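Appendix C reproduces, verbatim, an entry submitted by the partner laboratory led by Prof. M.T., so that reviewers can inspect both the input and the predicted structure.
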Amino acid sequence: MLPSLTDLLATARVVDLPLRSRFRGIDSREALLLEGPQGFTEFSPFTEYDDAEAAAWLATAIDFGWREAPPALRQRIPVNATLPAVSPDRVDAVLDSFGPCRTVKVKVAEPGQTLAEDVARVAAVRDRLGPEGRIRIDANGGWNVDEAEHAVHALARYDLEYVEQPCASVDELFELRQRITYMGIPIAADESVRKASDPLAVARAGAADVLVVKVQPLGGVHAALGLSSEAGLPVVVSSALDTAVGIGMGLQLAASLPGLEFDCGLATSALFVDDVVDDRPLPENGEIAVRRFSPTPRLMDQHAATPERSEWWLARLRRCYALLAD
């Protein structure tokens, strides 16, 4: 059962958190926070998403705020650091904010940048981590098959853990996987899961070795848990650049999975200048404790969105609620 729209609007607050470095083409992250019987929850689909896609994110907010959590199988989650597409001289400054993480996800294929810049960035990360550190790269579907194959060859010398969403479509991922199987570098699917009408299509097609699962786009912790079980592939739980409140969703999912083979992308609070809580979810020795987060009123006020942006989000909430109610 859906809570009433009146109940949702009664606690809705919109925040705008500045980022340390430009990420996904944005300099700050807007999010709408709500409070339900289970605690605070988050509705923060990216602004370019239409209402049909954003409605799943609202379903997640309701799931997390109004439904009891599944049983936790672990209390701490190993996490990776996330490196935006920065120049090599900024690598240390960005990664210092994550503390000692053994795994780094490096953004590549940034529009306007070259493969040579990607190579230089990954090389700087390998120099920092040493031979035992783990490096995964994320292209966000930015390459075609030929470009991806060329890039994987250029970056393979840095001992990649996996390549995340190198191409946009499932067919392209399948073809690339066939081409590079001999190299032993797995392919992980992200957008092909969270933005697909059928999130399991990439697994059924044999187009990926790993699934990157983000709770908000998939309709909630319970839905993501069911999808992960049905897919039959290793899962990496990752953030959608959530506030600390949304990170709590990912921690809950990661805590509930029967197996957790890879470090999870849930340390992205470190990408913000500030968050909505004082005890923000930053790694301690590469791990984050599983817990929910309640915003600090002072920080909610400090990072409140403008009245115009707040009204934009409240209108979006109303439209998405109508879609769920139908």
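The chain has two domains: 5-68+298-325, 76-294. Additional entries are available on request from the coordinating office.
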